[in-house]
Design a protein that fits this description.
29% of the residues lie in helices and 23% in strands. With 738 residues, it is an alpha+beta fold. Strands 3-5-1-12-9-10-11 form a 7-stranded mixed β-sheet, sandwiched between helices. Strands 7-15-14-13-8 form a 5-stranded mixed β-sheet, sandwiched between helices.
Length: 738
């Protein structure tokens, strides 16, 4: 469909299925990414990274590299002592994240930045890096969080343990709940380490301005956060720094934080007085860009005599990698743990949460960031508990839901769910579920291995930063043209379409008269960033309030008239407003999946995926459906294919797309997407964030379906990814069907 040929004026109201206006340029190759940008006198950087996972640098000699033709500078930690380390997470006493290394320092993961080479061309920088002489004294490495937490494990940062933080999450009387339970099931489960693998690897281009400030082009989800971090690290006034994201080829959480290698490039530009660009290579990204997940759970679920989920208790150990990134603790303590209750009216929780340092790439947010892990652990237990209680998986969930009239609902873990009707979501999926059960029965009678799984979940969204809220500025020129500048920074979500559509509807102007700006701190008002399903909840509310302020200003013209005429008479109109959000929103859904297993090969083929989502009123259903499909693709990857692996020495075994398996279009199923609308009372639009629902809902549904198919063999649980080899081995180790 040619989006430019559409009658936009007929599609400006909230809820219209308008095609994304940003796609035409991107599909035609007219996007502008970091590597597309150049500057006069541009230099290029190359990182020398540690080949060992744990070692002491006994010698670091950069002098030979400085003599290579074309080299402008070679830098180590000794050259950047006045910069860094990067600020860590608030409230957690974790190890500092250094920019580069020097002789005598330890390296703690294979891929840690050691030195930075800057030259006239990328090839010259890469060639000169070969002349950086580094001698290492190897140390024992540990890559598994359970092993790293054990007594006697190699210590990454000294002290007494690799456990960086530990917290106990309690609510209700778990001992009484489990003592009274008719059924108790326990399972050890892992949510394996995975890599984000964005289409565009990370990159940065830094230039020193005439007034000593900085102009930084960076592939990021949080331009204003980059600005404030650089201002603090370099002691530069914030108003002398400009950060531009431009087009961003995928982020998925990994492009939220600022990395040490990026700061080192900025420092090099300041020291050399010339612009410097660094573009991450694909293989490098598997080592240097934060990974996601990597948790091991040993959890127990209690079920009452009448078939209700009443409690969860146990332990979760989270691998953090070699250093504590800004959000790593939040993922575990504020997301994963508190969300274990999911949609259920559980009475008690008692879970110990620990973050453990390992000789691996640091862990950060990855699409969902704690939400998918919580749903996976709870929904796997729910299926195991249903089997133990002799109940259908759907029936156990039905009996356990929070009632629709119980909202706002305070969970035992301290969360307040704003609104929900979880039974309605389940019912919307039940026709498909029943049909799949009938197909399963017929197929099993014919000797086929068919399985059906489901997942019911909640998805918190709209993270509120604290004292300052995201802003939007709406300007109407005397000609009637409307500009909407937002603090949230789009990188594939459809900001131009959604916010343009919202503003056009609120102001009563044609969609084609609206221009949406973001991702440039020089033109966009302050914003906390785009992540955690927050853009529509927070950014959309800011747009609403700014539009309302513009309309109020236009009413100063006494006679009723079109907005453009009022703007002409008043010499233009403008208003900036902050979002007004009363806490996070909680979208929810129910996903159902069917699979068939080939017993001769172990290959899992996904049949149907039914996705029921409720994210409140929808601005644009096409954007919502796109988020669901993208999330499902990533959820399929974790369930069946993806895993970052290391050998016993901490060497990465999956550092290329030859070794790290990802689903292709052939493996990603067509998703049957359905929507319900339960408005949120937490914001004036009533919307809820749902950018991560696909990764939350589909992964447990697939795994539950595979385990359902393997039930005749007595296989109770397999850890992800459910590769053909793993499934085949389980079948043949189990022996004949019974």
């Amino acid at each position: 469909m040619n989006a430019n040929a559409m009658d936009w004026s007929a599609m400006t109201k909230m809820g219209a299925a308008m095609p994304r206006v940003e796609d035409a340029a991107l599909l035609a190759g007219r996007g502008t990414y970091v590597d597309d940008v150049t500057e006069p006198g541009l230099l290029h950087a190359y990182l020398v990274r540690s080949p060992l996972a744990h070692a002491v640098i006994t010698e670091l000699d950069v002098a030979p590299a400085r003599e290579v033709p074309g080299v402008a500078g070679v830098f180590t930690a000794d050259d950047l002592r006045e910069v860094g380390p990067l600020p860590g997470p608030r409230g957690i006493d974790g190890p500092a994240f250094p920019l580069l290394r020097a002789a005598g320092d330890k390296v703690r993961w294979a891929g840690e930045p050691v030195a930075l080479v800057v030259a006239a061309t990328p090839a010259q920088a890469a060639d000169a890096a070969e002349f950086v002489l580094v001698d290492y004294d190897p140390l024992p490495a540990v890559t598994d969080p359970e092993a790293a937490a054990a007594d006697g494990a190699p210590l990454l940062h000294g002290g007494e343990s690799n456990v960086c933080f530990r917290g106990r999450l309690t609510g209700g009387d778990a001992a009484s709940v489990f003592g009274a339970a008719a059924h108790r099931v326990r399972q050890r489960m892992t949510s394996q380490r995975i890599a984000p693998v964005a289409l565009e690897p990370r990159g940065v281009l830094a230039r020193v301005t005439a007034d000593g400030g900085l102009d930084v082009r960076i592939s990021t989800q949080r331009p204003h956060e980059v600005l404030s971090t650089l201002a603090g690290m370099f002691g530069i006034p914030a108003d002398r720094i400009r950060v531009v994201a431009g087009d961003v080829g995928g982020g998925f959480g990994a492009k939220g934080p600022l990395y040490p290698d990026q700061v080192a490039v900025v420092a090099a530009a300041r020291l050399l007085g010339q612009p410097v660009k660094w573009i991450e290579e694909r293989g490098e990204s598997f080592l240097a860009t934060t990974h996601g997940r990597d948790q091991v759970a040993d959890l127990e679920m209690a079920v009452s005599a009448d078939g209700r989920i009443t409690g969860i208790r146990g332990t979760i150990q989270a691998g953090l990698g070699a250093y504590l990134t800004p959000n790593a603790a939040t993922i575990v303590l504020n997301r994963l743990g508190p969300l274990l209750g999911q949609c259920y009216a559980i009475e008690a929780v008692d879970v110990e949460l620990a973050g453990v340092l390992t000789n691996t790439t640091p862990v950060g947010p990855y699409r969902g960031a704690g939400r998918p892990e919580a749903a996976y652990f709870t929904e796997r237990l729910a299926d195991i508990a249903a089997l133990d209680a002799g109940l259908d998986a759907a029936e156990l969930r039905r009996r356990s839901f929070i009632a629709p009239d119980a909202f706002p609902y305070r969970t035992p873990t301290g969360l307040t769910y704003d609104s929900g009707d979880y039974l309605a979501a389940l019912e919307a999926a039940m026709d498909g579920y029943r049909a799949l059960r009938r197909e399963q029965a017929a197929g099993q009678a014919a000797g086929r291995l068919l399985g059906v799984g489901m997942c019911c979940f909640v998805e918190p969204g709209g993270i509120v930063p604290g004292a300052r809220m995201d802003e939007a500025t709406v300007t109407v020129s005397p000609s009637g043209a409307v500009t909407v500048a937002v603090g949230t920074s789009g990188h594939g979500q459809g900001h131009q379409t959604a916010f343009g559509q919202l503003a056009a509807g609120l102001l009563g102007v044609p969609f084609e008269d609206v221009t949406v700006l973001f991702g440039d701190t020089a033109v966009a008002p302050w914003g906390y960033g785009t992540f955690g399903s927050r853009s529509t909840v927070v950014g959309g509310t800011a747009v609403l309030r700014a539009c309302e302020a513009v309309l109020a200003a236009a009413r100063r013209v006494d006679a009723p008239m079109p907005l453009a005429e009022a703007a002409r008479r008043l010499g233009g109109l403008a208003a900036t407003a902050a979002a007004e959000v009363d806490g996070e929103t909680y979208a929810f859904g129910c996903y159902v999946c069917s699979v068939e297993i080939d017993p001769d090969t172990g290959r899992v083929r996904i049949g149907r995926v039914i996705a029921v989502d409720d994210c409140g009123p929808v601005i644009n259903p096409l954007l919502v459906e796109g988020q669901v499909h993208g999330g499902v693709a990533q959820g399929v990857g974790q369930a069946l294919y993806e895993a970052v692996r290391y050998d016993e020495d901490g060497q990465p075994l999956t550092a290329s797309l030859m070794d790290y398996a990802m689903p292709s279009a052939v493996q990603v199923p067509v998703t049957e997407s359905y929507r319900l609308e339960t408005p949120s009372p937490a914001n004036p639009l009533g919307v809820k964030g749902m950018g991560e629902s696909g990764t939350i809902g589909v992964t447990p549904a697939i795994v539950n379906a595979v385990m359902d198919a393997l039930r005749p063999y007595g296989v109770r649980h397999l850890d992800m990814p459910l590769t053909a080899e793993k499934v085949w081995t389980a079948i043949h180790q189990a022996g004949p069907m019974h």
